Amino acid sequence: MRLCVIAGDGIGREVTEVAVEVLTALLPGLQIMEHEAGWDTFCRTGTALPEATLASARACKAVLFGAVSSPARKVEGYRSPIVALRRALDCYANLRPTRSLPLAAGRPDLDLLIVRENTEDLYIGEEQSDGETATAIKRITRHASMQVAKVAFELAARRARQRLCIIHKANILPLTDGLFRDAARAAGANYPQVAVDELLVDTAALRLVQAPQAFDVLLAPNLYGDILSDLAAGLNGGLGLAPSLSVGQGVAIAEPVHGSAPDIAGQGIANPVAALLSAAMLLRHHWQLPVKADALESAIRQLLSAGIATADLGGTASTRAFGRAVLAQLAR
Ligand code: NAI
Ligand code: MG
């Protein structure tokens, strides 16, 4: 078994170090292939996603991605490597679960899954500006909408509540978001056991704050899925806890929802739980090792309920200390 590890920038490096150690303990035969991507790589080499990194990700079929820094201004030649990687590997669905953890900081009643379309929408990066007027293309295709919807319905059918809510803004964007909604509904026709609902994205944000326990699976186009999943992470104690897995045609990318967190990078205090839970998703969904995934998730829960946590959760553990505690818990 092989894993392509792309640590990236900032805390991406700190949290992947811990996740790799834990995965290696769980899978002693695992071969780790470390590769670079991100802003530092771009500054040094002129490309944010080197060919060798992409080739390794393809060959390994499993990727652990930390986080990268992307400038919030136009930089000639730079494109976010994670957006490019998802597209290049055709990881068209991003699974972003939020489940309550034993923490006072989070709500106790969360068990939802956001399935985010991962290849199109405003993330295609087609922008133009003459300095006075700027335009971005929002591209939605029936094909991409249907294929992500199939993943979402398949997962909803296997969950206890079997409910799926399609998120859109078709009242303002009837052609693009309307197509997403209609394609999703068409894909759902094959899953009569799943109760389908739809909500405008702004209302979905309101309801997520007011009554998140009412949600089971949410299916969203790329941008709304990105935003709502940070909101869901906030309900659960923060970005340091939010995992994700990008899936599609046989390659999977485990990627915490958070970014490179320049405000805390280099201090050794980043919360590795998001990366560890992403690794657990890789174990469960990609490598079909549910027992190992359960062991990792339950070790994390036990530590958190014992008050062992990083500073974002009010604890005193460093990133590495939390990692060592996970290893010790797994060895018990
Ligand atoms: P961010 O997710 O990096 O940080 C937001 C806030 O959450 C910060 O206060 C940070 O300290 C905190 N935080 C995030 N992860 C944490 C963790 N594991 N432990 C403790 N605290 C944590 O988002 P921000 O600041 O908006 O973006 C920073 C950079 O990250 C930008 O360059 C952005 O483009 C990039 N980014 C990259 C992503 C990726 O590589 N997948 C995703 C999101 C942002
Ligand atoms: Mg995001």
From TrEMBL:
InterPro entries: IsoCit/isopropylmalate_DH_CS, IsoPropMal-DH-like_dom. The keyword Transport does not apply. Keywords: Oxidoreductase. PROSITE patterns: IDH_IMDH (PS00470). Pfam families: Iso_dh. GO terms for molecular function: isocitrate dehydrogenase (NAD+) activity; magnesium ion binding; NAD binding. It comes from the Bacteria. Residues 2-326 form the Isopropylmalate dehydrogenase-like domain. GO terms for biological process: isocitrate metabolic process; tricarboxylic acid cycle. The keyword Oxidoreductase applies. PANTHER family: DECARBOXYLATING DEHYDROGENASES-ISOCITRATE, ISOPROPYLMALATE, TARTRATE, ISOCITRATE DEHYDROGENASE [NAD] SUBUNIT ALPHA, MITOCHONDRIAL. Belongs to the isocitrate and isopropylmalate dehydrogenases family. This is NAD-dependent isocitrate dehydrogenase. It comes from Craterilacuibacter sinensis.
